[in-house]
Model the fold of this input.
Amino acid sequence: MRGRIIKVGLLGLGTVGGGVYRVLQSNRELIAGRVGARIEISRVLVRDVRKDRGVPLPPGILTTDPEEILNSPEIEIVVEVMGGTGAALDHVRTALARGKSVVTANKDMLAVHGKELFQLAQEKGSDLLFEASVAGGIPIIRVLKQCLAANRIQQVMGILNGTTNYMLTRMTNAGRDFQDVLREAQALGYAEADPTNDVEGYDAARKTAILASIAFNTRISFQDVYVEGISRITTEDITYATELGYVIKLLGIAKDTPEGIEVRTHPALLPQSHPLAAVSDSFNAVFVRGDAVGDTMFYGRGAGDLPTASAVVADIMDAARNIVHRAPGIISCTCFEERPLKPMGQVRSRNYLRLRVIDQPGVLAQIAKVFGDHQVSLAAVTQRDTRGDRAELVLITHEVAEQNLRDALAELGELEVVEEICNVLRVEDDG
Ligand code: NAP
Ligand code: HSE
Done:
């Protein structure tokens, strides 16, 4: 078997593609032994064949013509590490339609077009593997599909974006403000020049959609995920959260509830004792609660050339092994149910609120009445940062349905004594 060569076409040779190339080279013998066949990259699609790639490449391996990969009868596995939902999607469709196995790291594509692509893979009996699309080097897709397959998964909660975790960590530990840490994250190469995808939570929401689909065996798309980013978090919120015994994290949350699947990505206050609270800097982690296993957590690098390549190459090895054993397609789509989504207005949580109010007698009573009228029960109220005739109120609510809180906030905003509703953050403390 080890004499068998499985040919791979690589679409993209940037950060991840370069890492894949290096791992396949440096661990060549080990990988061949583990798979029972040699894996050989025979063609690589790029935009610019003259660009220095920082890896020694055989002459002529680079091409700008996708057909040299997609139309090659020798190439059995296509690895898509180009990114985006334009050419990458077209090439993945074509590769699957032509019966090739596909490995991808592309959460943007899967979180929107997953249903169509998995159906196509199933029809053609091909593998479509995507371990690197969520949390980079952390094994989590296989964990949910295989290692925890005996469990009814109750919740998945993850720190799925390294850029924002780095920023929130710096805001917490160094007391720096949002714009300051964003510039730092850009200088370090974590955040892109346009940081919208990371900072506004879209990147984490795409990963949350993929995780929720696998955890609950139902197709959940990016559009189904409620999303808020971290751009409204201030140093005041961080300070108050710390004093109250919490850390602020951008979380991807998916829960199985009697009213349907909850799926959301937003910043939240987590108790300092929660396992995810200790995950700092650019690290990612995924906390999974199963009915048999209980609580588990998976931690590591969510991005970077070699950590991401670790997951991509493992997928290539699985696809190659399936080809060797004539079983491609055996790791098929697991979305065999159609579960309803729980509307965001029905999601229940505790909440942290920061209000700037006029500091005079009777103000608290007016505010408390509005909350009471909407069945929002207050667990704690403290007055902070009194300046002149203005004061900041920090409130924690008991668990309440999101819609009740929204209605109360709309009415609070109309009160003359409430100058500003500075921030509202959910508190996730049932972990
Ligand atoms: P990247 O550094 O920008 O590399 C993209 C590569 O694809 C480049 O080699 C580029 O060619 C090639 N490419 C792009 N569009 C092309 C087109 N139309 N035709 C031909 N070649 C094209 O991207 P990356 O960071 O490696 O990310 C790749 C994928 O992995 C994305 O889906 C990303 O979300 C995912 N991912 C990345 C990370 C990470 O740490 N970077 C982690 C997890 C997942 P040229 O080099 O010639 O421009
Ligand atoms: N931009 C992502 C992050 C990495 O900061 O975690 C790629 O998914």
